Amino acid sequence: MISQESPGVVGPPVVVGIDGSDWASRAVAWAAGEAAARHAPLTVVHATGVPGVAARQDWLEASHRDARAMLDRAAEVAARVAPGIRVRRKVSDASPVEALTELSKTARLVVVGCTGRGAVGDALLGSVPLGLVGRSFRPVAVVRGRLAVVGAPVAVGLDGGTADQDLLAVAFDEAAVRRAQLVVVHALGDWEAARAFNLGRTRECARERALAESVSGWREKYPDVPVQLVSAGMGPRHQLLRWSQVACLLVVGTGRRAGLHGAGFGSVNHVLIHHADCPVLVVPGTGA
């Protein structure tokens, strides 16, 4: 791996993967803003490897030249968004998922765009977010949809699992940095929604109380973050896609909770990564 960095880079960086596409450039701009807001350095990485393919030396040399030019352009984008930001450039011979997973071990956040450059790029980079969310050691932001919406809320999707507190920690922090409202959405899976409907209003009230209790400690820690609680009876796909139309960021978990039974957040993540109308932040957790 070839590395260049600006002087004085300290602390965990925001890492952004690029491939030269328009969405990769937007991901760099978004990541630079995130890094600047947290006084963190930015690492821009281009991974040249393709899984299962051994590259020839002449191809590697050419790809490294292209990568360095690509990284220089990305650094210029970052500097326009956040003047004075500390930028590290990296070229990796590993595949994008391998390179970004390794860098996530020491990162604050990993950022990628939603599509690649051309038909092959779309096929390769389109699989990167899905590969990363199950392997990354840190949250993965997939930049897509509307960007930089002034006054828009941050939305977080909960499923009642053990990872909800991890999600709330990230979501409250993101809302505080943006000085935005936080919308906390507890959307039931399809089978849970049907069961709740049959049990009636009593069970719904209990679920609303549990949701309020889950955020009470975070409200005390972040008193300046306004909170809206949404306890939704319809499935998480519909609810979270709807909120992505008005949010500036959608925060979700990795979807390991077994209780969501196939209509859970694992499949929901796939839908959100490809169809949400705002950036999606997927937080690794310890769901049951």
Automatic annotation (TrEMBL):
**Which InterPro entries does UniProt cross-reference here?**
Rossmann-like_a/b/a_fold (IPR014729), Universal_stress_UspA (IPR006015), UspA (IPR006016)
Taking every annotated instance into account, which residue ranges of this chain make up the domain UspA?
A: 14-144, 154-284
Gene3D superfamilies this protein is in?
A: HUPs
Checking Pfam families in the record gives: Usp
Question: Which family does the UniProt entry place this protein in?
Answer: Belongs to the universal stress protein A family.
PANTHER family with a match to the protein in the record: STRESS RESPONSE PROTEIN NHAX, UNIVERSAL STRESS PROTEIN UP12
Annotated protein name in UniProt: Universal stress protein
